[in-house]
Amino acid sequence: MRSLKPFKSDLGRTMGIGATLMVVAYLLDSIINADLVGESVFRQILSPDVRGLAVRLAYLSVLLLFIAYVCDLMVRRKCLEKALVKYQAAIDASVDGIFILNDRKECCYLNESHARLHGYDSHTEVQGKPWRLFFDDDEIERFEEEVFPAVFAKGEWRGEAEGRRKDGTTFPQEISFTAINRGSMVCIVRDITEHKRFEQELERRAEELSEANRELEAFGYSLTHDMRTYITRIYSSAQILHSEYQESLDEQGRFLVRTVCDANEEMERLITDMMVLSRIGRSEICRKKVNLSEMVHGILPLLKMTEPDRRAVFDIAPGLSAECDPQLLKIALENLFWNSWKYTGGTEETRIEFGQTDQVENRLFYIRDNGIGFDMKDSDKLFEPFRRLENANGFSGTGIGLTTVRRIFQRHGGEVWGEGKPGKGATFFFTVPE
């Protein structure tokens, strides 16, 4: 139950104020009456004329209450004036132009920023003027036919326009209208000249970059074509030397010929991988539902063909699927499985697993092997081109495969990363967002 003390306190305060007003009113009435009849003030107070006293007291009480009400209004007005000055200073400090149109489309208010945007020294130069002062004829027609009807139909409108300055020059602006009531509206304007200039510069740079990419692609195609021509000539010559002059060569000579042939094959693979990597950045993603488990089962025979005598166990989870580009994802899976097959070559029994984690909503897949693994401090080097880990120096490779894998998953909006321990195998995770 609430306490009655606050109520008693307010009632006592009210009664005290009322009693004080009554006493003050009585004293003022006595003084005025004593002055009128020529009596002593003290006599008038101590021996008042009861007749008409109540009327005079009531009159003076009402008069005092009216005076108090007027004083309260004056105090409130002073506070409102201070607040208005503060808010006016805040609006004038805004970098955006702000103005209000009345139902006759006249500027009944605008801040200093809006005046400066349009080349005027002060808002007083244009206050009360029509809104057409700020736009050319074409924009005026567009506003009257399209913008203002949309403002009063939807309550607001935002877009771009060409503003006109006092000297007749124009500038691009971002402008918004918000309807207030009975045909009036508030408008906020921002100068976007620098923004437009920046956009034009970006477009110019993009065009230059596109042209440079086209030239680079043409150069790359010509370079790889010419390199393949020379590689083919070197490889053919080495093969002829090996087949027709084998009897004339000693062991050292035959070793050098084999070295030349092996180097040519490695160079051919490197050129092929680089061309695949360059095409991935330009190819268009065509997504469809793909059964990744079936795709992996199509890759495994290719692995076994390289070493048919190797003992290997593959654990492929059934029914794993994703929405992806089938050609690109096949390239990524081939690279990942070849990577696992290569680095498990020294094990007694190769074990490679393909599955999906319990986080189905994230589409998180993995390929795990029992190969040589790697140190996690080197994990950031895995997907860099031509970077090889220290424990991978004895294995063949071009250094482009995992870079291609990362580019493919990035094109799909996903990501790929590796986890491992030296001598404990490695696991590569990848995501394929829907």
Summarize the topology.
Blueprint: H1 5-37, H2 41-46, H3 53-93, E1 97-101, E2 107-110, H4 112-117, H5 137-154, E3 156-164, E4 170-179, E5 185-191, H6 193-244, H7 251-282, E6 288-291, H8 292-306, E7 312-316, E8 321-324, H9 326-343, E9 350-356, E10 364-369, H10 401-411, E11 416-420, E12 426-431
Parallel strand pairs: 7-9
Antiparallel strand pairs: 1-2, 1-5, 3-4, 4-5, 6-8, 9-10, 10-12, 11-12
Main traits of this protein?
single chain, 434 residues, alpha+beta, Beta-Lactamase, 4 domains, 5-stranded antiparallel β-sheet, 5-stranded mixed β-sheet, 53% helix, disordered N terminus
What's a quick, concise take on this entry?
With 434 residues, the protein is α+β, with helices and mostly antiparallel strands. It has 10 helices and 12 strands.
How does CATH name the architecture of the largest domain? 2-Layer Sandwich
Strand percentage lies at 15-25%
CATH topology of the largest domain: Heat Shock Protein 90
Shape: elongated
Q: Give the low-pLDDT segments.
A: 1-8
Q: CATH superfamily assignment of the largest domain?
A: Histidine kinase-like ATPase, C-terminal domain
Rg value: 45 Å
What oligomerization state is this entry in? single chain
| Tally of DSSP helical segments | 10
Helix content: 40-55%
What is the H/E string?
Answer: HHHEEHHEEEHHEHEEHEEHEE
**Number of self-contained structural domains:** 4
Structural class: alpha+beta
Could you characterize what this model shows?
The chain is of the alpha+beta class. It folds into 4 domains: 5-91; 95-191, Beta-Lactamase, CATH 3.30.450.20; 200-279; 285-431, Heat Shock Protein 90 (2-Layer Sandwich). The chain is built from 10 helices and 12 strands. It has a 5-stranded antiparallel β-sheet with strand order 2-1-5-4-3, sandwiched between helices. Helix 1 crosses helix 3, helix 7 (251-282) runs parallel beside helix 10 and helix 8 crosses helix 9.
